[in-house]
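ARCHIVE CARD
CATEGORY: sequence design from structure
SOURCE FIELD: tokenized fold
FIELD CONTENT:
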């Protein structure tokens, strides 16, 4: 049974930082592409960042590039999203997701991911 548990969300002022964690059990994260998505009410889930399983290449949405960093600690079987210089428009529920068979061209498509966490709220005040 796969379980992904996100943590680290909260309320932060604009310009601040947060680090989200995604702890995995039941699967070895290094064998999977790991991604972060976010969602606000009434909107479709939006791609934020991905760490591809083969080679460890990273991909980011243009809106977060140079501010967010995705990483993985194999020893802890945990993925992270370091978020710096947060903006009010970053406010959302953030989800981590994994998939073992994802092809590179699909890393930004939320429908391609098999396993999801429950989400963690990030609120950035202006």
């Amino acid at each position: 049974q796969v379980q992904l548990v996100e943590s680290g969300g909260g309320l932060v002022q604009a310009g601040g930082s947060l680090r989200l964690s995604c702890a995995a059990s039941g699967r070895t994260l290094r064998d999977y592409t790991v991604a972060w998505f976010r969602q606000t009410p009434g909107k479709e889930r939006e791609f934020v960042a991905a760490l591809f399983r083969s080679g460890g290449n990273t991909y980011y949405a243009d809106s977060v590039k140079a501010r967010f960093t995705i990483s993985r600690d194999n020893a802890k079987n945990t993925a992270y999203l370091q978020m710096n210089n947060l903006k009010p428009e970053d406010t959302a529920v953030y989800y981590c997701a994994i998939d073992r068979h994802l092809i590179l061209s699909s890393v930004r498509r939320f429908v391609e991911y098999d396993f999801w966490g429950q989400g963690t709220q990030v609120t950035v005040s202006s």
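CARD ANNOTATION: The mean pLDDT is 95. The chain has no helices and eleven strands.
SHELF: design records, drawer C
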